[in-house]
Amino acid sequence: MGLLTKYRSLEREAYPDALKDKEGYWTAVYLNAMTIAYNTRLVRPEDVPKSYEDLLLPKWKGMMGLDLNKTEWYVAMLQMMGEEKGKKYMEALSKQKIQARDGNTITSTTNISAERVG
Predict the structure, then answer these.
(1) pLDDT at 9
(2) 3-state secondary structure at position 2
(3) More confident residue, 69 or 11
(4) Residue 22 DSSP code
(5) Which of 33, 32, 35, 37 lies closest to 108 in space, CA to CA?
(6) How far is CA 61 from the centre of its chain?
(7) I need a labelling partner for 110 at 20 to 30 A (CA). Which of 4, 18, 31, 101 fits?
(8) Beta bridge partners of 117
(9) Where are the alpha helices (DSSP H) in the chain?
(10) 70 vs 38, which has greater pLDDT?
(11) Minimal CA–CA distance to 77: which of 64, 96, 90?
(12) Can you give the three-state secondary structure of 33-45, one letter per residue?
């Protein structure tokens, strides 16, 4: 219907391809970075998980919290790992007795356990 037109600003070129339409109709305006965070008083530097797969180790069972409203994290993990591997990973992660949280603040400020991990 001709309601939209292409717009290729100079700044657009600095964005990765995954954040812009190949035909030039849109460019993302923000990016959510998702990462593993940990309590430095409970986890020694040598014990910090180095990968998402490390979170499946038995020592982390019952020691993690996750904001279960962050469905974009689930989708991103499936995109990163591939759908089949991602679903298997999520199934294994679900067996780690993850404590559900509602919101980033409560997730990042709640002590999951008083015990030192490691």
Answers:
(1) 87
(2) coil
(3) 11
(4) T
(5) 37
(6) 18
(7) 31
(8) 43
(9) 71-81, 83-94, 104-109
(10) 38
(11) 90
(12) CCCCCCCCCCECH
Q: What is the mean pLDDT of residues 27-49?
A: 86
Q: What is the pLDDT of residues 99-112, one digit of tens each?
A: 887 766 655 555 55
99-101/65-67 β-pairing? parallel
Q: Which amino acid is at 46?
A: E
Residue type, 117: V
CB distance 67 to 102 below 8 Å: yes
Residue 26 exposure: Cα atoms within 13 Å on the Cβ side:
6
pLDDT, position 67: 81
Q: Which residue bears the tokens 């790992």?
A: 81
Q: Look up tokens 């991990």; give the residue.
A: 117
Q: What is the mean pLDDT of the chain?
A: 84
Residues 6+ positions from 102 with CB-CB distance below 8 Å: 67, 68, 69
> What is the distance between the alpha carbons of residues 61 and 113, in angstroms, rounded to a whole number?
11
**pTM surpassing 0.70?**
no
